[in-house]
Structures are given as C-alpha cells and as structure tokens.
Amino acid sequence: MPPDKTFVSGDTPPGPGRTRHIANDANDARITHAYCEPYPPGHGTAQEARVINKIYDSLASAVADVHDGATIMIGGFGNAGMPSALIDALIEQGARDLTIVNNNAGNGETGLAALLKAGRVRKIICSFPRQTDSQVFDALYRAGKIELELVPQGNLAERIRAAGAGIGGFFTPTGYGTLLAEGKETRVIDGKPYVFELPIHADFALIKALKGDRWGNLVYRKTARNFGPIMATAAKCAIVQVSEVVELGELDPEAVVTPGIFVQRVVAVPPAARA
C-alpha cells in the first residue's frame, strides 16, 4: 500500500489544499498530489476521529477537493461499472486539465464522454479509444484538443496493478516491436524479447461498487467489478459510489473484493437516484 494512503491513529492529517510532490508517475515526471482527507467532515473530537466512518453524505462533498491537473482513474468497461454519478459531480465541481485513466474514451454523451465534452480532460490513457459511439472523443482528438496515450488492455491493467502493489515496473512481450514500445527499455529474456512498462499512479480513483460499509469494504456486481479493485489500490484517494451502504458485519468477508484499507470515501447512490 502506498505510504500516504491512510493516516496513523493520533496523527493530524494535513489541512485542505496542502500538497506534496513525488516523482513516480508513468513517465517519471514531477506531479502534484493532494492529500486525501480519510474521513468526511464532522469528526471534531478525538473520540470521533477514532471511529472509522468513510461515508460521505453527498457526491459534491466526496469530490470537492479534486484539483486542476489531477490524474484520475475511472472504473468501467464501457458503461459497465461506470461511476456516472461521481463523474457528473466532478463536472459540476469544475476541475480541469485532468488526466483520465480508463479502459475506453467515453460512450455516447454521458458519463466519461460528458466529462470530455465539458472540456475538462487534457489527456486520456486508455486501451480502446474508438468505437461506434465514441464521437465525443473522436471530435476532440481530430481537433487536437486532447492527448491520447494508447496502452494495450492487459498492459493497462498490469500497470495499474503494479502501482497498487508498489512494483517499480515489469517486462512484457506485449507491444514489443511496435510504435507502442518506442523509447522504452527492451530486453531479451530466455530468448524472447520484452518491453519494460512503468506503473500508472493516480491522485484519485472514481469507482462503482454494489455495496459498501462505513469502513470502506466493497463488494461488486458481476462484470461491473472490472478495473475497480486495482484502481482503488493505485490511487491516493479512492472515491466509491455504491448502490447500498450496509451495516458492519453484513458483508460476507469471503465476498469482499476491495478491503477498506484501500478506500477513503464512500457515497450512496441508490438505483432510483440514477434513473
């Protein structure tokens, strides 16, 4: 788990707006990370601070500190598992010049496509940018208004997983000898050529789960899980929209895919609220 993922009990978390600089993004560039407040506002006393409660009462408060220039991972495989309510809240919040990590580049004009259409995204890192309903991304890319980093799907998943696991990178045969490997280290291992890929870190992850509790433990619904679990580990601040918040102990431990240590914020978005 990354070093500043959670705060030790008794420590005073940094105040809003404070940032630090680390050089560990996919391109080893110097990027700014905002500290993530681990609990919602209102834990005023020492006793309250010791009670783990990651439930936020609104979408707006959950994304309030997303800053301009942030790198944000967004879960979803197409529309499956897309945290559309959180994305809509992010559009309302106003952050811009964002770098987005997602499998796709938006479908139709809702969800991620709406964020692109609002002009908030500077760069997108994805594996499948073009499809029959990716007209928003297509128009932006042809106009030179968005940067694209194309990553093979397996490499994308492994680069995200590597960030969450604290791995400095990995060698893969995928992409060797293609334009995608230009400028990257290569090596022959047991007679087979490989290319070196760096992990992808993020400031925030916006993901969707079926159920969650106040500790941040999550269960997902079938294929809507997709990139959510690994994105939660790779981001400094994982923000999750769930269909239902349940009491502690209601989730079968064997069914929990993402343990609460990787989640900072949970907000309930019942199905009726998304209609």
From TrEMBL:
Q: Which domain of life is it from?
A: Bacteria
Name the keywords, alphabetized. Transferase
In its UniProt record, a GO molecular function of this protein is: CoA-transferase activity
Q: Does the keyword Transit peptide apply?
A: no
Q: What Pfam family is a match for this entry?
A: CoA_trans
State the InterPro entries in the record.
3-oxoacid_CoA-transf_A, CoA_trans_fam_I, CoA_transf_BS, NagB/RpiA_transferase-like
Q: Does the keyword Transferase apply?
A: yes
Q: Which family, according to UniProt?
A: Belongs to the 3-oxoacid CoA-transferase subunit A family.
| NCBIfam families documented for this protein | pcaI_scoA_fam
The protein here is known as 3-oxoadipate CoA-transferase
